[in-house]
Amino acid sequence: MTEAMAGRRDAGAVSEFVESFAAQLVEAGMQRMPARVFAALLSSDTGALTSAELGEQLQISPAAVSGAVRYLAQQHMVSREREPGSRRERYRVHSDQWYEAITNREAVLKRWQYALRDGVDRLGAETPAGRRIAETLAFFDFIDGEISQMMDRWRAHREKHFGNG
Amino acid sequence: MTEAMAGRRDAGAVSEFVESFAAQLVEAGMQRMPARVFAALLSSDTGALTSAELGEQLQISPAAVSGAVRYLAQQHMVSREREPGSRRERYRVHSDQWYEAITNREAVLKRWQYALRDGVDRLGAETPAGRRIAETLAFFDFIDGEISQMMDRWRAHREKHFGNG
DNA sequence: CGCTTCTTTCAGAAATTTGTGAAGTTAAGG
DNA sequence: CCTTAACTTCACAAATTTCTGAAAGAAGCG
User: Fold this and answer.
1) What does the angle CA A87 – CA A89 – CA A94 come to, to the nearest 5 degrees?
2) Which of B1, B47, B139 lies nearest to residue A99, judging by beta carbons?
3) Inter-chain CB pairs, A–B, below 8 Å
4) Which residues of the protein have their beta carbon within 7 Å of strand D?
5) What is the largest CA-CA distance in chain B?
6) Which of A126, B35, B95, B153 is the most buried (most CB within 10 A)?
7) In A48-102, where do the E strands start and end?
8) In chain A, what residues touch B128 (CB-CB under 8 Å)?
9) Cα A69 to Cα A52: distance, rounded to the nearest angstrom
């Protein structure tokens, strides 16, 4: 690392990572702006950026930042901070908060389970279709329990390897 | 259950389940037509329908069926069958095949891991951002291993409760 | 209270996605 | 081979989504 680079960040390298990781998130179904904003926060030095910084770095309007951040906050993937006595907001990824959120398909899972249970009732538990749907439901019930155990194991694993970082 | 209903399926009840479950899949990011086709197959008596039957039941064009089925086959959520000596194709959900597919975010996971690894390299493993991204990567590496173990447990659980159905 | 700074909301232009009809392709069966 | 039944591809119209500039809304600070 040259002296000129020390303590400095290569804006080009950051941007390339931001765009390529965001592209993967988009491919997996996330909207474009939330994906870019999230990737930008993830690759920021402090893990937190202001609206203006995000707009500048990603070349998007304040409106776009606002929409993206609202979405991410709803999904519990970032949190909003406000330095006391300032109008300026800061958006932050907590190292641990966001992958809790990613496995927190809980809301999705719950709705699927509800819809499937309803299907079993409608079609009749003793019909072929009813049985097929009941098995699908059993799968999601199973998954539901497993995921929370998995996250417990991850927390232990993480603490061991990364400390309470 | 009245005599008239015995052995018969209430088309209205089926349709209501199809549309409501499909809506949940759409909300979770799946495209509309694949979601409807999939829900229709899931709630069919035999677990398999022809293109014409799907078009009729869902009121969609052959082109729409074709597109939806191509997508579902790529995702390994349905398989195509052809009765020998017929031009007519049949699309089937195998009870076990498709939830294997649903947890098979493997392709997605792999791409995320690749993008994150690249990010650590670009930003530097010893920078704050690099460390944050490395931890995220560690999470996905962990998840990757856990999911296959979870599916092993599911198969055991399933066999116990449903037999080899 | 009013000025200033930041964020949010909103209407609309632009881009993208979706589903169709119609033409094209494949393969069975005479 | 030719016909015909079935599936696929393609261009386009319609619907939806996305992002912006502009206006409106909040909140610190004098």
Assistant:
1) 155
2) B139
3) 144
4) A 31-33, 59-64, 67, 85-87; B 50-52, 62-63, 65-67, 69-70, 87-89
5) 74
6) B35
7) 48-50, 79-82, 89-92
8) 45-47
9) 12
Pairing of strands B89-92, B79-82: antiparallel
Q: Name the nearest CA neighbour of B40 among A29, B7, A109, B52.
A: B52
pLDDT band at B9 (very low <50, low <70, confident <90, very high): confident
B23 or B3: which leads in pLDDT: B23
Confidence of residue B100 (pLDDT cuts 50, 70, 90): confident
Distance of C1' in C28 from CA in B81, Å: 16
Q: What is the pLDDT of residues B61-94, one digit of tens each?
A: 999 999 999 999 999 999 999 988 888 999 999 8
Average pLDDT along chain B = 91
What is the residue-wise DSSP string for B28-81? TT--HHHHHHHHHHHTSSSSEEEHHHHHHHHT--HHHHHHHHHHHHHTTSSEEE
Verify whether the Cβ–Cβ distance A42 to B165 is below 8 Å: no
B138-162 pLDDT, tens digit per residue, is: 999 999 999 989 999 999 999 998 8
Maximum Cα–Cα distance across chain A: 74
For residue B99, the model assigns a pLDDT of: 81
B-facing residues of A in 20-79 (CB < 8 A) are 20-21, 24, 27-29, 42-47
